[in-house]
Amino acid sequence: MEKIIIKGGRPLRGQVTVEGSKNAVLPLQAAAILAVQGTVTLNNVPPVTDVQLMNRLLRFLNLKTAYGEKQRQLVINGSVPLSSEAPFEYVNQMRASLLVMGPLLARTGQARIALPGGCSIGARPIDLHLAGLRKLGATIKQDAGFIDARCDHLVGSRITLDFPSVGATENLMMAATMAEGITTIENAACEPEIVELANLLNKMGGRVHGAGSKVIRIQGVYYLHGAEYTVAPDRIEAGTWMLAAAVTNGDVIVRNAAAAYNTSLIAKLEEMGVTVIKQEDGIRVLGTSVLIPASVKAMPYPGFPTDLQPQMTVLQLLANGTSTMEEHVFEQRFNHLEELRRMNADFQIAGSVAILDGPTRFSGTEVAATDLRAGAALVLAGLAATGITQVCNPQCLDRGYYDFYQKLHQLGAQIDRFDVKEKFKIKPEQPRQENKGSEPE
Ligand code: EPU
């Protein structure tokens, strides 16, 4: 079993560099399915496991992928006949696998995608993806754990989303690029990752307008071709480092962080007494020993990002008084708080609101990461805690952060990651010789 071990109490100091955005690159990888000619070359692609999982799925669909970790460059070639089935073992490991549905349908006229299973941050239904594809003319059936979508060809339509789902907006944008006529997506997600996808689709010959606003208009084209695109820096990774600096009362320059994409976080940090300085190459964050409580609402962009909600609650718990966190995107994204309770946090949860009573003197203990952002929050709490914190299941962090603990180590944290069995030379259990023939306990 692997663990991250932290001896807390040291302010972080120095510089850290943000990788390319995980949540931007996953739909860009899926968009490569649309290129019937040429290759899609993506630069600044982070070496995180979700990107690898998407590549694995693309290869299963018959696309060729080549990734150079050092150059951070991914080349995808889909100019071959494609398979159109995504099995459970791929979709279940990563829900973003669903993003292949729209482009597969547009390119091959069919997509058979396993229904994803449960999720640690909420129910995460896919009704909006399916309703939108139906509006574009697809026939969709569900059987034996699969979604089976088919069409002769897709036809542009007016789609109004009940909620500005990021994934549904992306899936529908990709499907609509090759639909006949014009598609309008209303109440679309406005996240910067949507703009990234539109930029690539337009470089591939698509005609997508209005991305980043509530209404996206797509004029269908006959075919799309390869293109080269450089992925923007990861605003959530940047925000995580900014919060790490604040929770340790440190002084950190977050290189490549774009202030324009983190305005809601910056506003809250400043409200809490943290100094944020925008620089040419990033953002400098200087902590304070007296944090002011704040009320935060995690909302669709440009609201406070749900992907920074768990990390933000750590800072709120350190503040001098009562703060609140409202979660308006996912229904179960407070799992990390129960782990933080084991580190001395005092809070109550009432529906979608967490009431956080500070100031907390976090004390180190063994805690378990339930997902990527929960894992980041636990590490941040460990950095602020007295004593030793052990974070189990650190593989969660590899899904979206590259070299998380090494980057913290470079900022001065006392942190290590190891396999417990290796480190303490725990021998594998020997089969028991006595009681032969008895039932297992
Ligand atoms: N929803 C529906 N029906 C749908 C689709 C979504 O009800 O058909 C609901 C979900 O249940 C959820 C809400 O809408 O309550 C938002 O879901 P959304 O579709 O916007 O999220 P997503 O596309 O599944 C992406 C990111 C998440 C991020 C959310 C919200 C990727 C690969 N994932 O997920 O990132 O939290 O948008 O911003 O882009 C993470 O990086 O840790 C992460 C979870």
Automatic annotation (TrEMBL):
Protein's UniProt keywords contain Cell division: yes
Catalytic residues as annotated in Swiss-Prot or TrEMBL: C119 (proton donor)
GO molecular function annotation: UDP-N-acetylglucosamine 1-carboxyvinyltransferase activity
Binding-site positions, phosphoenolpyruvate: K22, N23
Pathway annotation: Cell wall biogenesis; peptidoglycan biosynthesis
E.C. no: 2.5.1.7
A Pfam family per the record: EPSP_synthase
Domain Enolpyruvate transferase intervals: 7-408
Localisation: Cytoplasm
Keywords for the protein's UniProt record, in alphabetical order: Cell cycle, Cell division, Cell shape, Cell wall biogenesis/degradation, Cytoplasm, Peptidoglycan synthesis, Pyruvate, Transferase
GO cellular component annotations of the record: cytoplasm
Sequence positions bearing 2-(S-cysteinyl)pyruvic acid O-phosphothioketal: C119
Catalytic activity: phosphoenolpyruvate + UDP-N-acetyl-alpha-D-glucosamine = UDP-N-acetyl-3-O-(1-carboxyvinyl)-alpha-D-glucosamine + phosphate
Annotated binding of UDP-N-acetyl-alpha-D-glucosamine, by residue: R95, R124, P125, I126, D127, L128, D307, V329
GO biological process, one term: cell division
Similarity comment text for this entry: Belongs to the EPSP synthase family. MurA subfamily.
Function: Cell wall formation. Adds enolpyruvyl to UDP-N-acetylglucosamine.
Entry protein name: UDP-N-acetylglucosamine 1-carboxyvinyltransferase
Organism for this UniProt entry: Limosilactobacillus oris DSM 4864
